[in-house]
Amino acid sequence: MKTDAEETLTHREAMKKEEIVDLRKYSNDQIKLMKPTKNLENPFSDMKISDSSFLNDLDGRSSCCKCGKSRKYFCYTCYIPLPCIADKIPKLKLPCKIDIVKHPREIDGKSTAVHAAVIAPDDVHIYTYPDLPHYSSQENVLLVFPDKDAININDLWSHLDKKTRKSLEEPETKRIKPQIPFTRAVFIDCTWNQTRKIYNDERIKGLQCVELTNRETLFWRYQRGKPHTYLATIEAIYYFLVDIHIHVLKAKYASEYDDLLFFFKFMFEKIHSIYDSQSLKAYKGV
C-alpha cells in the first residue's frame, strides 16, 4: 500500500521518477556512450533555491576574516562565507551529519563539497585524506558509494528495518513512525579514478554502502569516459537527502534541502552565461 507521501507526488514528479534509468541493466561501455537529456536552459526551475543575484554585485576579491587569504564568495579553506555577504547566504539544518573525505589532490577551489560546509556548517565536516575518523568501529554510519554490494537507497529502510526488528512477523502497524536509521553519512570527494584508494582504507572498509537513484549531473567539470550520471559531490549530497526524505522518512519533499545547491546553481548559470554549452566537454551531446 502506498504511503500518503507517495500518493501526493505531483504528476511532474511522477514523470521524473519514470525517467530514471537503472544503470545496472547496462554494461560499462553502454553507460559511457549515454548522452545527457537534461534541459540546460533552466534545469533548476522545479527547485526553490534562494536568490543569488547579489553575488554578481561583488567587485573583486576580499580577505577571509579567519585566515586572511584572498577569496571570492566564500573561503574554501575555512568553509565560511565572506563577511560582506555572510548574512545573505542561506543556512540549512540537515537531518543527519555529513562527513566528506576529500582526496589530497582534489583542488579546494574547484570542489563543490565546500558548498555543503558553507551552507550547513553545523552538520557538514570535511576531512582531507589520510586524515579521517575510524568509521569501521562506529555504528549507524553509511558510506554513499556505488559498491557492488551497495543497497539502493530506495530499499534502505526495509533493509535496516529487518536488521533491527525483533521479529520479522511483527506487524508494521506496531512499529514507530519511520526515523532516519543512521546518524552519519560519508561521501568521498575526488575524481572517480581516485576513489578506490580511499574506499579501500581500513577505517572505511566494512561500512554499509548505499547507492543513489540515478540522476544526470549538471557539473561543468569534464571527466573523460564517465557517464552523465556521475554526480558532483554537492549534487550527490543533495539527492541523498531528498531520497532519504522520500523513501526512508516517507514524507513529501517540499524543497527542504534545495538551498544546498545555492552556489552550484549560481556557478552553473555563471559559466553558461560566458560559454556556450555546446563548447563545454561536460555537456557534449546535449
Automatic annotation (TrEMBL):
Domain DTW: residue ranges: 71-276
Primary subcellular site in the record, as a coarse category: nucleus
Entry keyword set: Nucleus, S-adenosyl-L-methionine, Transferase, tRNA processing
EC class name: transferase
InterPro entries: DTW, tRNA_Mod/Golgi_Maint
GO BP: tRNA modification
A Pfam family the protein falls into: DTW
One function term, GO molecular function aspect: tRNA-uridine aminocarboxypropyltransferase activity
Catalytic activity: a uridine in tRNA + S-adenosyl-L-methionine = a 3-[(3S)-3-amino-3-carboxypropyl]uridine in tRNA + S-methyl-5'-thioadenosine + H(+)
Transmembrane stretches, start-end: none
This protein's record includes keyword S-adenosyl-L-methionine: yes
EC annotation from Swiss-Prot or TrEMBL: 2.5.1.25
One cellular-component annotation, GO: nucleus
Subcellular location(s) per record: Nucleus
Protein purpose: Catalyzes the formation of 3-(3-amino-3-carboxypropyl)uridine (acp3U) at position 20 in the D-loop of several cytoplasmic tRNAs (acp3U(20)).
Family the entry assigns: Belongs to the TDD superfamily. DTWD1 family.
PANTHER family found in the cross-reference section: NATURAL KILLER CELL-SPECIFIC ANTIGEN KLIP1, TRNA-URIDINE AMINOCARBOXYPROPYLTRANSFERASE 1
Protein's name in the database: tRNA-uridine aminocarboxypropyltransferase 1
